[in-house]
Amino acid sequence: MVKPTTPELPMPSGKEGDFMDGGNILLVDDEPEMLEVLEALLTGRGHRVSPHASAESARSHFETHPGWADLILTDLNMPGEDGLSLLRGLAADDDSVVGLVITGFATMDSVMDAMRSGVFDFIIKPVKADALDMVVRRALAHRKILVENRNYQRHMEELVKERSEALRAALNQLETAYQFTLESMVSMLEAREKSTGEHSKRVTSIALILARRLGVDKEEMEIIRRGAFLHDIGKVAIPDAILQKPGRLTFSEWEIMKTHVDIGYSILRNNPDIREMAEIVRSHHERYDGSGYPRGLKGAEICLGARVFAVADAYDAIRFPRPYSPGRPAEETLREITRCRGTDFDPAVVDVLAECQPDIERLWRGEEDSAKPVGGTTLP
Fold it and tell me: Has domain 193-364 been given CATH number 1.10.3210.10?
């Protein structure tokens, strides 16, 4: 049987504030005389009673009237299914119903079995009206507390669910707004320095190819993808005279240019969800041997995303034609990067570059899309 699903469990009926009167009681006893006496005693106290001479009949009523019973008052020893078996079966369908047992042969074993079955209390035959009334009142009071707790728990769960959904929607809105801001900044940078946008896209594609071959998980792939695309975001603060200068930069100009990594890091670091991405932006000019900038990090001190990016960035810079230098052939590009294995670049990343080079070249020829998004909201 499927447990009934209702917005809230029904409270024991009766006058408001008088929960001890007016309960719905499923009464089970195979002795007709006892069944009649118990029904009369209970109805005389204002309860609604459904009397049954067998467990089978009581179970049928319970299933056809889901949620009706507050209490189940059953004889312990009956032909066929006994009272404890009945209570265990009905509790499996609705564990909010309180069970009471009537018996004229209570033993320590029967008491222990009843307690393990979740029985609330015993009523000893011959039944005394006052004793029956007291046990039923206590059982209904217990039922009221149980129902209130269940309904409160259900209410809190629904409230938490509603609040969680509202929070999730708000976070999605913030993420969308933040994403738009980042993309706008990249677009502004691209408008100032035409080569930046396409370079960022190509480097992102190469970095993802390398990261996949290295076995990077989905979450780290997304960090690398975003970090690679936004690596030059800090250049929005570099003066045009330096950013667009056609010739070599002076020492002082170069020192200003180098600040773009810290500027980019400052733009991104305040959002805890993308702090690791900000670290790639800050470290993408570090070198494996510690000779890079801005902090002179060495080896594994450089985050994995920045080590992957460094190889991808170098490949694009050497391979792809620039205004100040012609692009070199694929074989020469690989040789040049391999020459700097262990100095400028992480040896493990350089090794997978050799394996991935055919994929990178096919990507540039437009034969496949190796820069496909890796989960979450995506940048171009």
Answer: yes
